[in-house]
Amino acid sequence: MPRHPRLDPLADRYAARTHGMKTSEIRALFSVVSRPEVISLAGGMPAVTALPLDVVGSMIGDLVSGLGAQTLQYGSGQGYPQLRERICDVMALEGITDASASEVVVTVGSQQGLDLVTRVFCDPGDVILAEGPSYVGALGVFQASEARVRHVPMDDDGLIPEALEEALLDCRANGDRVKFLYTVPNFHNPAGVTLSEERRVALMDIAERYDLLIVEDNPYGLLGFEKGPMRALRARDSQRVIYLGSFSKTFSPGLRVGWVLAPLAVREKLVLASEAQVLCPPSLTQYAVARYLDTQPWREQIKLFAELYRDRRDATLESLDALMPEGTTWTRPEGGFYVWLKLPHGLDAKLMQPRAVNAHVAYVPGIGFYADGAGREYMRLSYCYPEPDQIREGVRRLARVIEAELDLHSTFDTVDTGSFRAVGRGPRVPDVETIVAPATSERYEDGA
Ligand SMILES: Cc1ncc(COP(=O)(O)O)c(C=O)c1O
Fold first, then answer.
1. Separation of CA 115 and ligand 1 centre (Å)
2. Which CATH architecture has domain 68-295+433-438?
């Protein structure tokens, strides 16, 4: 029998892999959070207005007028060699000092890097281990490749090594083929936590013992608030770790420039897979990033971004501490963009969402960050884009929504704090003030 023949005449022809494709929880919110009256703590958009936009603009203009022939031409499938050299300088900040430009593949954002790595390694049915929760864009890629995701729990220090070992043993016992561990060790999206140094050592030890390949996705590593960057997993093992990097959070997401650092044999396959997808990454934006790194104080700019995000993180945590009702817990990020909040026992972030939108505040329900339907009691709050005053007002609105929800569930009297640290509880929330978010035209909620 044809499926929905009247709704879509091609319904029976789609590849099986399209059947599980769904809009991410973030994109599903797009129309809602674009409304100016809504304060969005949902999208993970970098604060690009903190860039010297006139300088960047004239730099790109000069590139085209001066080097037009190259910048507007096709380029190499592996990426512009000079940019690959500069990428090695960037990675050196995280202790990766042995990388050579020949091992780097420039990609259209690290999102394409994720897709390439998954294509190169995964057949349908293969298992990918990933933190629970995990970056929604990675889950989408894994799902499209028909791999199966097994989540490994985290706590405030990141992925739990014992749980990883347990998952590996389980997979071994089931005869599952584990292709790699996907991990975001720094300022995790969405959990906000960072893998501790002891756990990095333990993780590399497990990887060695179980012959585990690691895909280290690190777009936020240079955006720490309290101390310098942590030593990358890739700096500890050049053969067992494939590293994904991005200029989206440290420069601009709109340029769509990221990279993969992989051993030469893997790099070979990644380049072939990338050429099949895009022929070559865009020349103009690669030249723009290379010129930016060559001529602009990019390290200072990253510091400036980190200071701006630290102020927004502080506004978020102070408001949560002051306003959230008892039983609500959240992580305390030391960098990056996100706080992971757990609702008091019995509440469901997905079910609560329409009430939050009515109260003019948006978040991403936790369910979007799990491949197995878990996470209903969680939500992700992003502090990267709104101004501190908007954040305070957004958190105030959210606290009121949670309190109203709790009143509805007043029969619940136990509080489960879960694996993430329980912090703060505060007084009842005062009345909502009206703070209008930036105009729609300035806002774009992406799948970050
Ligand atoms: C953990 C993680 N990986 C990858 C990406 C994709 O970034 P890019 O803009 O480089 O494609 C994001 C974007 O938010 C992310 O949070």
1. 12
2. 3-Layer(aba) Sandwich (3.40)
235 pLDDT above the threshold of 50:
yes
> What pTM was estimated for this model as a whole?
0.91
Residue 117, CB-side half-sphere exposure with 13 Å CA sphere: 32
Fold match, 22-51+300-412 / 68-295+433-438: no
Q: Which fold has domain 22-51+300-412?
A: Aspartate Aminotransferase, domain 1 (3.90.1150)
Alpha-carbon span 352 to 357, nearest angstrom: 9
Please count the CA atoms within 13 angstroms of the CA of 157 that sit on its side-chain side: 12
pLDDT attached to residue 430: 36
Residues 180, 190, 345: CA angle, nearest 5 degrees: 115
The per-residue pLDDT of the chain, averaged, comes to 90
Residue 394 three-state SS: helix
Q: Whose CA is nearest to atom 15 of ligand 1?
A: 448
Nearest alpha carbon, ligand 1 atom 6:
111
Nearest atom of ligand 1 to the alpha carbon of 246: 10
Distance CA 260, CA 240 (A): 14
Ligand 1 atom with least separation from CA of 113: 11
Average pLDDT rounded to a whole number, residues 438-447: 37
Verify whether ligand 1 is closer than 6 Å to residue 390 (CB atom): no
